[in-house]
Amino acid sequence: MFESLPPIGFGGMPLSIQGRPSEEVGRRVIQAAVDAGMTLVDTADVYCLDDSDIGHNERLIASALQGRSDVNIATKGGLRRPRGAWTNDASPQHLREACEKSLRALGVDQIWLYQLHAPDPRVSFASSVEALAELQREGKIRHVGLSNVSVKEIELARSIVNVVSVQNRLNPYFRESIPVAKYCAKEDIAFLAYSPVGGGRLAKKLPEFDVLWPIAASHDASVHAVTIAWVRAQGSTVIPIPAARTAEHAIDSAKAASITLTADELARIDEAEFSRA
Ligand SMILES: NC(=O)c1ccc[n+]([C@@H]2O[C@H](COP(=O)([O-])OP(=O)(O)OC[C@H]3O[C@@H](n4cnc5c(N)ncnc54)[C@H](OP(=O)(O)O)[C@@H]3O)[C@@H](O)[C@H]2O)c1
Fold first, then answer.
1. Counting atoms of ligand 1 from 1, which one is nearest the CA of 194?
2. In 10 A of CB 51, how many CB atoms?
3. All domains of the chain, ordered by start, with CATH?
């Protein structure tokens, strides 16, 4: 699986939630990201406005990438969007229904990578994972992934099914998943780092951190691309999945693939405090 994966993937979420651009612009951004080398595209059934709009991002990506066999699309199930809220539902019944809808939204017979969006506190984690294992046995999904999980949860899931990927938040503001990224590297599991530049508001704050500017200058890159390069350096199987609502931002983030930070540059970012205030 890993041989075919790019160093940086693309996250589709902001193209379909509140504040999204037109679908025409969204398609152009996705095409620009893929053309820039981000040939792993991450989505979810719930990247939409509310429950009446489920699958918006999956349909958008599918329509943008029609006929491109060089791109892998990863989606997720396990949440709902009642009246626009984000709620958990990783019950086996919901996961099965969600997977069927995602197959239709993506227009495929088999989903390349299906990720449990998050453990559901009201459902036994093992039963959610078993539901994915069953969908895999039926051929509806090729690979199984997890998201928003601890090492303990990954180990429990691996006793039920082969887990090929873990998707957790990782950026200089939020570093609590670094041990999970290290575990994934040791176990040869892909670690998809979400919100790699901090997500919406915090992504805009990155230029405030002086530590990033000289490093960006020495690599002739943006502070965002340097941040993505730092995220990528947190484990040998880390694949950052930045999002963008403009082609310019997507292309800029893709440049992180060719940035290798020195040990000294990594240490300077490690030691810096990234206040979220
Ligand atoms: N599994 C989960 O629970 C979960 C949760 C959150 C996200 N995700 C996934 O991870 C993906 C990325 O996460 P995210 O959207 O939260 O955060 P992100 O990628 O850290 O930040 C996205 C925002 O940063 C800005 N940005 C990105 N690259 C930039 C650049 N090179 N220069 C300037 N600005 C840049 C973009 O602004 P513009 O919009 O102005 O272009 C974009 O809206 C999502 O799309 C989704 O696929 C998963």
1. 10
2. 14
3. 2-199+231-255 (3.20.20.100)
